[in-house]
Structures
1.
Amino acid sequence: HRLIFLAMGDLMERNQPLDAITVGDHLQRQDKLDDAGGRAYLARLVGNTPGAANIRRYASIVREHAMLRQLIEVGGDIAASAFESEGRQVEELVDLAEQRVFEIAERGQRSGSGFIAVKDMVQPSIDRLDALSKSEGGITGVETGFEDLDKLTAGLQAGDLIVIAGRPSMGKTTLALNIAENAAIGHNLATGVFSMEMPREQVAMRMIGSIGRVNQSHLRSGRLTEDDWTRINSAGSMMSHAPIFIDDAPGLTPIEVRARSRRLKREHGLGMIVVDYLQLMQVGGSIENRATEISEISRSLKSLARELNVPVVALSQLNRSVEQRNDKRPVMSDLRESGAIEQDADVIIFIYREEVYDSETPRKGVAEIIIGKQRNGPTGTFLLTFKGEFTRFESHIPEDYSEGVYG
């Protein structure tokens, strides 16, 4: 069949007709007619040619068998690499195997019709632009639920690595989970959360408090009012239908994060990934320099965002040196342990709350959100209100626009 197909291709390239006679003559000139089954076999194939009514199903059968052959080939390569690992670690071999199988699955899902005349693309493009112009704030990525942040970023873009950085207790996890809640509950986007600092039960409890606006101290102590229970049930109802998936395994490697993310995308689809937090990840092997290790982690997260075509939100700690300055607002050089984070990230968001350092400040509950870097957009600063009792950020309405960053 391969010989016959190649002969048909040769004839098509020469603009010659295709039938049992022309294909047979072409094979005979190449001295391959007998290997292809002879003229009688060609005639039998023509006699058994199916109609065009089920052509899509026939094409599907061909594609399925092609995928099976690819699986057989990849399976052999995987077995060979396992027998002769050449010093590579098991995790690396597993990642390579999963990547190759994932590529087969992705190719099997692709559907393309080849060239499309530009005249047929004009109207869909105009319709797309019209829809974007009518969308709220011109959001082209995943909406965060915070209007000022969405205005600056146009949403979290697919393929981008977004780093949320701050000193301890600033609210990094709270902001990331609030964004995840909005994506999953507000827009039904499957969201994977790698929580390496908190167990999944604690993450779920935070979400209940945030979504239902239930005081976290009530949730921890169990001293709940009737109103609390009403809010808890409402939050639980929303969460039970939200495609949020939490993985609380500690100290994951980039290879493990990538493998688990691929699996989540295959099984449930994927709209966004959250990693809490970057410095708690590990790299297998004998890397002794922590800065080099962090560099490899940040590069792998950027690569993951590109591969799965989703925004990856990674939390990061800041250096202690920020505590030694009078102005403790974070800057790029405060990113902990590696300048590679600054290079790899498409967007870097700093969180600063003055009340963490000054309990007497009149700006309690006010958080400065600083966009320190945006590869394809502007930087800037805006305010959010921090509701610590609910582990929640909300849009901020300043009492006096002449104060703070507005002045």
Note: The domain at 2-109 is CATH 1.10.860.10 (DNAb Helicase; Chain A).
2.
Amino acid sequence: MSTGLAVVVLGAAGGIGRHVVTEALRAGHRVTATARHPDRLPNPDLPAEQTARLTVTRADVRDTASLETAMAGHDVVVSAVGPPGRHARGLYSDGARATVAAMDRCGVDRFLGVTSAGVRYDDPELAPWYRLLVRPLLRELYADMIAMEDLITASDLDWTLVRPVLLLDRDPTDLYRVADAATPPRGRSVTRADVARFIVAELHERRWTRRHPTIA
């Protein structure tokens, strides 16, 4: 079995974040799960020897000091932060600034973050109805995601930016497909659990360093 890493999960109470926590524990990693409201984090349905490697802590992705506290002594940061609705209000870009600063101060240089396939407006696999009807409604959200990506890619971090298509709350399939900076052909949806499995696999595989894997 591979040697476990010390992993910080930002946004661990969210749909993808909670799956990342569970899959990382199953894979043998030590996990620090962070959220603004740690009491909202679900308890992973895992054996005691796995949950013993879990630490839950409060951190605000916009607050560099709280992020430093959470990140100290870790190997990698996974960011699965996201707003509850369709307005980002600077969450992605503000969070990226604070995250990069905290990682620099803590000496952590590996970052895996989640944005969306929708950030690439010219993606030929983006359905016309989505481009014309849905994307305008999410213009502010996608603009903030793009700002986050720009901040991360301009940094010195060892980064991977995961771009899922339409997210579903279903069981993992392990049938997902991945392409670099483009949606796989006819890729319309993916489960949050599959996105988490891809992220946790990438912790050791490191196949997508400084790339934009789009998953469907």
Note: Residues 6-215 form a domain with the Rossmann fold fold (CATH 3.40.50.720).
